[in-house]
Amino acid sequence: MKLILTTGVAFFLLLIQLSAHPGGHYHEKDLSSLHHWNVNSKGEKAIGNFMMFKDDFIFIEGLNGSISKIPYSSLRDNDKIYADNEINKINQFNSNNFQQTKLEINYSQLIIFILSIISSFFFLAIGLKLNKNKSSLIPRVSFSLLTFLFLGISIIACKKSNVISTTTPSNDIPRTTTTFIDSAFAPYSSTITTSWDSTYFHVSCNGLPSHNMMIGITNWQQQVPIPQNYTGSNSWSIPLQPVYATTPMSTRTNFMKGAVAIAVNGIPIFNALNNRGEDSYLIGELDNWGGHCGKGDDYHYHAAPLHLSGTSGLLPIAFALDGFAVYGSKEPNGSTMATLDSCHGHIGANGVYHYHGTTVYPYVIGSMKGKVNTDPTTPAPENQILPQAFASPLRPATSPLRNASITDFSLTSPNHYLLTYKIANKFGYVEYSWNASNLYTFILTDTAGTIITNNYPR
Length: 458
Known about the structure:
The chain has four domains: 2-21 and 101-164; 34-95, SLA1 homology domain 1 (SH3 type barrels, Roll), CATH 2.30.30; 178-386, no CATH class; 405-457. The chain has helices at residues 2-19, 77-95, 107-132, 137-160, 178-185, 309-312; strands at residues 36-38, 45-47, 49-54, 57-61, 67-71, 101-103, 162-164, 192-196, 200-205, 236-239, 244-250, 259-263, 268-270, 291-293, 299-301, 318-320, 325-327, 345-347, 353-356, 367-370, 373-374, 385-386, 405-413, 416-423, 426-434, 439-445, 451-457. Helices cover 22% and strands 27% of the residues. It is globular. The protein is of the alpha+beta class.
């Protein structure tokens, strides 16, 4: 009898061990995929993915199953919009009566199920034997309870194998045609050159857009746009065969160096956050077109260049460096933009994923839906995607000019620009030009009237 009891207890402990599951859906390795919430004007943050909305509170799940309750009213505007999208998705999902379940084979649960059935019959047989031998009531009741316990475990194990089917993109993504990509860049062919090989679509340009620049910046680093040599082996490269990432890399904790996409006018699009982790748009670093210049005097966007839709129409306004297209505020067929996921995109009517540009954070890409290669020499958050075109600095990096607002920027003659800025009621100027020998001349006039001239060969 002792042997039978020992065997039964061993079965019971084995089932408990197999059924054990660490708390929560997210653990340390999932940190980059969690949403970072700005919960008040002081910049305090909460980390976790949206669960539900109730009584004017949102509930989020963080690492190891931790649940946080945040007042909806305390969220920043961009996070309110994100929460609204999540709430709408849930409401839309619940309003549709097409939820289907599918049986997913989970071998650990299958083992639990089999052991539970065996154990249930084992204890049931012992209970019947005790009843036949007219043993005391307590053992019979105990074995009956154990029988029901193991039957219960088997039912739970069975139920766990039935899950709600969700829309998960297939990894069988059709190869993007070069005709499609080239058609998106075609309206800007006067300033860019395209080519392709078996792996990448290449874009060559000088990094200067046809639209004006710099006007509207109120937080200026004193850089100005100069031509860049984005040609040959330093061209921008778009993968022709996108591959879904196992875990999309968040732009909140990655890619604060280099571009994440290339606009169809040849201008790179950087992370919405600068290398200090600040929203470049919100702190006034960007001009009226969503761009500014980096330390290499390279012009690039940090916000979505939605203005390109005026020329591009319903074609993509950019391509991410994972190979997926970026559209403007409408779907490719002209319909209203569908709800976006945490990567800032969704599956299109053609079954292929695409991103959308918007006027709220993250503006272009929340996480890289596609698989990308990163530079091993630049760890997160300043890691960068490879292959990548690189700017060529001309002069030493400059420092921020406090309280300066750029009021005008113009091409006064070929290869000759004039930037006007204002501090209080006084104006300053940056006049620069270059000749056929690539000698650059900068004439700096500050608000006190002091003039400094510098020459930089290239």
